[in-house]
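for the writeup, i need someone to sanity check this before i put it in the appendix. the sequnce is what the collaborator sent (i think, or maybe the updated version? ugh). structure was predicted straight from it, no edits. if anything looks off just tell me and ill rerun, i have time this weekend
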Amino acid sequence: MERDCEQMQELAAYEKLADQVAQTTEGLVQDGFTQAPYYKCLVAEVPADQACRGHTLVGYALYFFSYVAWKGRAVYLEDLYVMEELRGQGIGSAFLRVVAEIALQNKCSLLNFVVLSANFPGIDFYQAKGAVDLTKLEGCHLFRFEQEQLAKLAAGKGQNVTAPPSQ
């Protein structure tokens, strides 16, 4: 599990978001290995004699089930990561195939995910597989409430917050 956190750090660094990582190994275990886990995780391992940088765990795909009101059941792919030295060898494609199989087995009609605008290799990878970029197609904006805003909102103090205008 320690290696999972290390790979998450590597992914965050690649996305230039390393300063935002707050998850711990304990949090991953608590959230993913319980009776009702918040997420599921696939891992790619290689034999010890093929270890990369001394590690046999070389990638992961973290996903969870969600729901889209007008489409029904969906899977959300939070992370798909393969160590840089092993990219282009089919590991990412295998992860995507397995997540798609899981989606269909669970009667899901969608597989949703986000790719950073600057992650051109990721965008190319998903589009080559047939993914549709909803940014252009539907003009969606991705929003988030961080923990502080969540607490204010839950306490009834989140209304009428000064925010920059939408563009």
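The mean pLDDT is 85. Strands lie at 40-45, 57-68, 72-82, 110-112.
thx in advance!!
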